[in-house]
Amino acid sequence: MKISILALLPLVAGIIGGLIGGRIHRKNKSMKRIDKNDEPNNGQTAKTTNKFLCSFAMLMFVAFNLNAANRLTAAQKACIVTRFGTEVKYNFAHSDRMTCDWDSLYMARLPHIVDTPTDEAFLDSLKLLCATLRDGHTAVWNTKPAVRDWPLPFFTKRFGDRVFVTDVITDKMTAAGIRPGTEILEIDDMPVIEYGEKNVIPYFPSSTPQWSMNAAYFGGQLTNGPADKSLRVKFRNPHDSVFTLNVERDMDWQHNPYYKRVISYKRLPGNVGYIRIPSFQQGLFDHEKFIKVFDSLQNASSMIIDIRDNGGGNSVYGDFVLRFISPDTIPALDWSSPKYIPVLKAWGAPEEPYTEKGSPLIPFSADHADIPRFEAPVVLLVNSNTFSASEDFAALFKSAKRGTVIGSPTGGSTGQPIMIDLGYGYMARICARDEWLPDGTEFIGIGIIPDVTVEETPDIFSGKDVVLERALEFLSFK
């Protein structure tokens, strides 16, 4: 149902006129104010006025929200879906992995998607269509506030079949008792894992089961939703302190978790250097800081590079790190991208993708005499949230046989997405590049499999990191 604000103006004017008219007495075709003796009870008048103002505010709120939530026409929805379908057809790098004909699939779903009752439902249907591509680098979203997604003011992470808070974003949440290590038991009266399986994972762009099961509960993904809707969340702090809060999606962040995703380091027992790189995003990865950190750990007997929960960014930054920690040339990943030449299609020639062999990475020590070769043993820590550019890093590290990979299988998705404006405030990114190891081994849709598998546990909130401990144990025998 679409309501025009202009159409409400006569009704609003009538209501206002009625309210004002109630304060005026007409006599002998002239207007005079009611004298003091005829004045209704002031308290009653105030109540009546307040009731009117509340009713009027609610009416306008509903009108504005109906307009905001149902502004797309059927023709506009069809335009968005067909544009997305066409762009996928010509740009998607993994069409050879699809189990059905893409044209048939999205055209079969088109009537249902167009017939959705609200813009929010339309976006959900579009996300479901996108999820059939099974690619973590292909997604759709809306940039307009009316249907904009936003998380609750805390971030989360899954450990096995449990979910915990990792970051608290507002002081209000801290005052309510939420802190890193607080466990989430239920969302909207549903067990938290079940809530994610029902409300998040089906709409979540993913290339592998491990990415779906972990990334969908990581950061703000679990609680992402319409910015104007709250969620009922049951929490538990240590010693079985259980409490429930109705939590709003507060956009006023006092503590942005992304600002903490910067390089950190320490020297561990046994003269083991440890460097944590939580992001390869521009603005978060600092070249100069890494150089200083690496220089301070040059005399370490061995090194641990931790890229767990690193969601990627720019692969150039990962290459930069590899050129410091590798004494020998590093074979690069080969890649391909869809290529469409209309005249070849007219001639019935097969469509072949554009392919290119990656350029090997030359260690800095080979190019700069003042940089010594770093030949100490290296362990790389990964998990299922190791994704995109950080997965490229893990792939090159393993391909070069630079060291041992410890942790859990990575997310299984990388590549170069192309950004597409679908119109009417809707956007898409479509993965336009496939990659594989120099020996032909594929990892997209699979993940980088660790040499030593160790799953993280919630003990990390009490200072016990079982993955790091396993890495130190492994290096102690080197």
Would you report the number of β strands? 22
Oligomer: single chain
Low-confidence stretches: 1-68
For the biggest sheet, the summary is: 6 strands, antiparallel
Shape: globular
Percent of sequence in beta strands: 15-25%
Average predicted confidence as pLDDT: 86
Number of helices: 14
Helix content: 25-40%
Tell me the radius of gyration: 29 Å
N-C termini distance: 70 Å
Query: Which class of secondary structure composition applies to the elements?
Result: alpha+beta
Describe this structure as you would to a colleague.
With 478 residues, the protein is of the alpha+beta class. It is 33% helix and 21% strand. The chain has 14 helices and 22 strands. It has helices at residues 5-21, 42-69, 74-91, 102-114, 119-131, 171-175, 192-199, 209-215, 287-296, 315-325, 342-346, 364-367, 389-399, 466-475; strands spanning 24-27, 30-33, 139-142, 149-150, 154-159, 162-168, 183-187, 190-191, 225-226, 231-237, 241-247, 264-268, 272-276, 302-306, 334-337, 354-356, 378-382, 404-407, 417-423, 426-431, 434-436, 452-453. α3 (74-91) runs antiparallel to α4 and α4 packs antiparallel against α5. It is globular and about 65 Å long.
